[in-house]
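[step 3/7] fold_predict: job queued, chain A
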Amino acid sequence: MPFELSFGAQDVRVLEDQLAWSGHYAMRRLTLQYRSFTGGWNEPVQREVFERGDAVAVLPYDPEEDTLVLVEQFRPGAMRSNGSPWMLELVAGVVESGESDADVAHRETMEEAACQLADLLPMATVFPSAGACSEQVRLYCGRVKSTGAGGVHGLQEEGEDILVHVMPRTEALQLLAADRVPNGHTHIALQWLHIHGDAVRARWS
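[step 4/7] structure written:
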């Protein structure tokens, strides 16, 4: 039989839900209990949950040139010891009220990489840090033309300073194999492309 998780949404009781902090993002303080694997319910616990909204991330791929369009930008959460807090990433953006995933994908690919999307393929849906953050990221592979792509992009009013890189698929996968892609959703997307890249190229060529 196919695998199924033991419990679902109905197996959690939210006893109290408070807004603990609100700024650029928000933090909720929950008192909750959930079913135990040994039977019955666990004792109530208090957990803080970081709320930053859901996001869509796109791996722009040019099947004719077999190249990827990736972006590099500063990430304050990656400031650790002597490692670089600049990350090589997918194009990504937060889903605003009333937007579809396709809306976000097209908008962010143009804003961050100055590329026009022609097609979208769903890759995966992930929770980057479900122990503390409610964010869900939906990953897509997007068909683009990479000829002429490059430069620095992003919205100045949002403090964005984004450098665009165009690289062969083989080079990106070499970075992945060398453990040089610490950004989680980018790592997942490149793994997906490693498995499905030839089929995607054939489909879009």
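[step 5/7] annotate
Residues 173 and 194 are 7 Å apart (CA to CA).
The chain has a mean pLDDT of 94.
exit 0
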